[in-house]
């Protein structure tokens, strides 16, 4: 079969786009479109290794790890390094699962119009069939997530009530081990709350208003924060009340099982 470089790149671009979407779903993060496209393009260009002589299994594994690292860095950012490491693991695992499925398909069924060589899959199929098959693969990955990844650990979910200026709002919060955000002057831990909820209790700008620097998957930035009169955190058979925290309004919506990310040090220091 003749392998065309342009078809190869387009096919793998679509496949990697869906694989990165699945990785982001497993990581529970929101990535911007241009980063998603950049990561998919890196993976698509990496598929050109199919034109090399057979490189062997160990080289394929090493190459896949390095390619997954490049894709994860492009799609999710390189800072902080802990998040990059987690993104690398998930991206490599999802890519490895997909490659394993394609290898099994090529060996067991040997479908016409498909080549699996040097760890790269090539489909000589129509655009419609490509879209349908890659969508089916994405749906399979989502099913895999639901069956084996499970829901958020309920032991890490808490009920939060934020009180400020005589107003109160309640929501679910996740004690996120990857969240160590602090207000830079006081060192007080920060709870990142969905913007629509934070704005319900945010007082007018006063001495307690802060601009809090932060790093996200899309780069460095800042969040608007304020010190509440009190927060109450309930869960795990106990209740924590404190005012030594800051509430920051998220730049992206936080919805689903929880609407806020809690710095776990708030929970730990209450022991």
Layout of helices and strands, plus pairs?
Layout: H1 5-27, H2 33-46, H3 57-76, H4 81-108, E1 114-117, E2 120-123, H5 127-149, E3 157-164, E4 167-175, E5 190-193, H6 195-201, E6 209-216, E7 219-226, E8 230-235, E9 238-242, E10 246-249, E11 260-262, H7 264-268
Parallel strand pairs: 4-11, 5-10
Antiparallel strand pairs: 1-2, 3-4, 3-8, 5-11, 6-7, 7-10, 8-9
Helix pairs in contact: 1-2, 1-4, 1-5, 2-3, 3-4
Strand content: 15-25%
The total number of structural domains is: 2
Instruction: Give helix and strand order, one letter per element, not per position.
Output: HHHHEEHEEEHEEEEEEH
Class from secondary-structure proportions = alpha+beta
- Number of alpha- plus pi-helical segments: 7
What would you say about this model in short?
The protein is α+β, with helices and mostly antiparallel strands and 271 residues long. It has helices spanning 5-27, 33-46, 57-76, 81-108, 127-149, 195-201, 264-268, and strands spanning 114-117, 120-123, 157-164, 167-175, 190-193, 209-216, 219-226, 230-235, 238-242, 246-249, 260-262. The chain starts with a helix and ends with a helix.
């Amino acid at each position: 079969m003749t392998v065309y470089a342009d078809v190869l790149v387009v096919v793998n671009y679509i496949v990697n786009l869906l694989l990165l979407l699945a990785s982001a779903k497993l990581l529970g993060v929101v990535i911007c479109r241009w980063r998603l496209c950049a990561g998919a393009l890196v993976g698509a260009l990496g598929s050109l290794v199919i034109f090399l002589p057979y490189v062997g299994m160990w080289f394929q594994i090493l190459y896949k790890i390095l390619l997954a690292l490049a894709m994860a860095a492009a799609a999710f950012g390189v800072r902080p390094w802990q998040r990059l490491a987690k993104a690398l693991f998930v991206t490599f695992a999802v890519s490895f699962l997909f490659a394993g499925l394609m290898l099994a398909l090529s060996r067991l069924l040997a479908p016409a119009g498909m080549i699996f060589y040097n760890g790269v899959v090539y489909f000589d199929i129509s655009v419609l069939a490509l879209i349908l098959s890659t969508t089916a693969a994405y749906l399979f990955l989502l099913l895999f997530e639901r069956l084996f990844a499970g829901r958020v650990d309920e032991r890490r979910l808490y009920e939060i009530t934020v009180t400020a200026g005589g107003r109160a709002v309640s929501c679910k919060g996740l004690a996120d081990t990857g969240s160590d955000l602090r207000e830079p002057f006081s060192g007080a831990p920060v709870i990142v709350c969905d913007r629509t909820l934070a704005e319900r209790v945010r007082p007018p700008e006063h001495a307690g208003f802060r601009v809090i620097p932060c790093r996200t998957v899309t780069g460095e930035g800042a969040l608007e924060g304020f010190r509440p009169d009190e927060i109450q955190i309930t869960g795990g058979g106990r209740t924590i009340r404190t005012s030594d925290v800051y509430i920051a309004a998220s730049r992206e919506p936080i919805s689903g099982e929880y609407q806020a990310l809690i710095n776990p040090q708030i929970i730990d220091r209450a022991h």
